[in-house]
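My main concern about presentation is that the manuscript never shows what a single data entry looks like. In essence, backbone conformation is discretised, so a fold becomes a row of integers matching the chain in length. An entry of this sort, consisting of the sequence and the corresponding backbone structure tokens, reads as follows:
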Amino acid sequence: MEKIHENIKKVFEGKNSFRILCGLGIIIVILLIFSAGMKVGFYKASFGHAWGENYERNFGMMPNRPMFGNDNFPNAHGAIGKIIKKELPTIIVQDKDNTEKVILIKDDTEIQEMRQKITKDVLKLDDFVVIIGNPNEQGQIEAKFIRVMPLGMPTLPPPVAPELK
């Protein structure tokens, strides 16, 4: 047993085996980074798919225009825009890219106007809001934080479609 231990120790003391182990370590780190990137991309694509699949159920009709912005996926973790419909516990926000997003307000959602905490009942149509949350499997955003922006905030202009020739 001691002889085996000495042979293993000799193998790991050599410069070549150190280089091989460093190379393997670098390859493992690269594979972990690549795997994390794939998971993030899959998560974003899954939300885009769920959002598109549930569009008709959430909004009652299919749009006659492209549903997504320049990167072909909606922002899965939030919305910035005005409230166009309120049926608690959900609200619909017209996002900056003119897409409608269903926002699910849960009991633990923090809602603020300026520095003051408010309840979801205070939210009203045409309020300009910034929402941060997580996507769910129904294509909704489960709000973690909602900030009602003060009146007079500049609204974002709608995106300009490129001219077709």
